[in-house]
Write a structure and sequence with these properties.
The complex is a heterodimer.
Chain A lengths: L5 H19 L4 E5 L2 H10 L9 E5 L10 H11 L4 E5 L13 H6 L4 E3 L5 H8 L4 E8 L4 H13 L5 E7 L2 H11 L6 E5 H7 L5 H5 L5 E4 L3 H17 L4 E3 L11 H10 E8 L3 E10 L8 H4 L15 H5 L31 H7 L8
Parallel strand pairs in A: 1-2, 1-7, 3-4, 3-5, 5-6, 7-8, 8-9
Antiparallel strand pairs in A: 10-11
Helix pairs in contact in A: 1-10, 6-11
Chain B lengths: L7 H15 L11 E5 L2 E10 L5 E2 L2 E2 H14 L3 E13 L4 H18 L2 E10 L7 E11 L14 E5 L5 H11 L15 H10 L5 E3 L5 H13 L2 E5 L7 H10 L13 E5 L3 H9 L8 E7 L6 E4 L5 E3 L13
Parallel strand pairs in B: 5-6, 10-13
Antiparallel strand pairs in B: 1-2, 2-7, 3-4, 5-7, 8-11, 8-12, 9-11, 10-12, 13-14
Helix pairs in contact in B: 2-3, 5-8
The chains are: A alpha/beta, B alpha+beta.
Chain lengths: 366, 329
Amino acid sequence: MLDMTNEQVKKAAEFFAGEIGNLAGSRKIRLMEVCGTHTVAIFKAGIRQLLPASVELVSGPGCPVCVTANEYLDTAIAYSRQPEVIITTFGDMLKVPGSSSNLATEKAAGADIRIVYSPMESLDIARDNPSKKIIFLAVGFETTAPIAAAVVLMAEQAKINNFYVLSAHKLVPPALKALLMAKETHVDGFLLPGHVSAMIGMEPYQFLMDEFQTPAVVAGFEPLDILQGIYMLLQQIHAGVPILENQYGRIVPQKGNVRACEILAQVYERTDATWRGIGSLPSSGLKLRKEYVAFDAKENIPVVVEPTKEHAGCRCGEVLRGNILPTLCPLFGKNCRPEHPVGSCMVSVEGTCAAWYKYGAGRWQG
Amino acid sequence: MAHGSGGKLSHDLVKNIMWPAFANDILGQMHDGAQFMIHGTKLAFSTDSYVVKPLFFAGGDIGKLAVCGTVNDVAMNGAVPLYLSAGFILEEGFPIDDLQKIVTSMHKAAEEAGVYIVTGDTKVVEKGGVDGLYINTAGIGYRLEGVHISGQNAKPGQDVILSGYLGEHALAVMGERHGLTFPQSVASDCAPLNGLVAELLAAVPQIAVLRDPTRGGLATTLNEIAVQSQVGIMLEEVQIPISPAVQAACDILGFDPLYLANEGKMIVFVDKKYTEQVMKIMSSHVYGRGARVIGQVMEKPAGQVGLRTTIGGVRLLDMLMGDQLPRIC
């Protein structure tokens, strides 16, 4: 929380918006906010309306549910159909469409799927159901992965042998690198995720300067954090000098959360991972190290998964790569709405399409 | 499950399944309860079923909720609730001590609200048939003379007044259910509002709309009113009362307090010239202390609710989609 009155916040916002306008001039500038939480915060605060028309904000591949591949959902669905399995998951995974079903449908049909607010609840469920196999759907970036790692360590210590992890953890920096290397998406600067950075620190983004000379600012989530972050990006672009800057110093230390990173590295190792809309990226995901293979669902519980099918017409992939805005997808707001999502970006509250729809893009008539 | 959460899917269920089967003029009023006349007496009648999980939570329990919820629904018709019915569906083996606590709490709540529980029913079903205990209550009362409350009465020139802080009930129940410890404790706001409603209507019978923002929260309730009255509603974010405790818990869980259920709050739409009077009465009442003028009614955009943000942007405030939180009342 910023210790400012509403009046002061409004004044500061006007200052940043004015400066952003001055720095941008008539030049077209395209900035990418990588993180889904930023996407939502930008809408919630009405930030776009304060920016000049020449400054465009596009969302990146930073919503963990959105980038989870169909194949992972299909695997989770196949597990949920096994009578001895209890699936534990964060609530926003329930409605993500797989190839032919989703977890909400399976739950309604009788599968034992339980929403948890902390992965640790999975251990209680494991203790209470010794004859069942509890599979936690470990989805998320560097922010949530250390918690999943800690739960694996707790399970080991408590000798719980019916708890498993189905890991789809992903890493943000490799995805940014892939986007820049593909050269398909033009980005003048990155607004980098505050929470992920609080874990990993600043160093993993250094390649943005060294290899791509692209301006980048780690920013917080209050409206003023975001406006200041954009202002800092504009200053870099205006000066023609890209620097890796930290707007969110009150939360993000240079080195990140060292202890959390240690726990993560103890339990997980890097692996290739499939991103929805982007494809397979080298060393962009996490899998359990061999010392913890006893907790790896895939290594211990056989499962037959249906062949993966993509949804025709859905342009989530291009939205996730920052290539198009959601409103350009032919399904947006028509066949694909929050109550009936076709693509993953419409499911999670942090999904790009869901945010655009919820906060009125193309609908608000005021 | 999402069909029961009070959001868009709930509306679709009522519209597509219930309404075609039961359609009649009284049901068509689309209010928190029915308004009709019997032998010249103007009455309000409402019913609600309570399936909250867990049964006990900070600030209340299923019994208190079952009384206050129905009392409030009747009161929101501009009525004085008088009598309640109570139906209990118990799971075989339900602890008698808990039942005792719950009926005692119902009695206490009824006493505070000045209503009597005058008829009831108890059924026991086999283990697993229900989850512990469900309660249905219905309430009846008489509508005050010279008062006309309806969701269709919102008009440009009216202010939107909210009686206090948002989100406490939903978070208290959630916290209890999942054993969550929030940075600051949050207790349910569950309370009978009929006393405050009576005071307000006695002084300002011109009040146009009364509604309690329960499931789906403030955002969903205001969207319903905007659609029913075919008006636009513009809210000022800085005026919406949200306590630091609720905000902190929402930040952690990723909830939006504007969509969280309340069980002791109400929204009043009234012509601007009566705003000061309404605010004065609210602010001096125990259940209206946090009252604020949070927005106003506009001609356009018809059927939509907008929010002017702290930094001066404007955005759509949509209805709740799906179930943010199942089984909170």
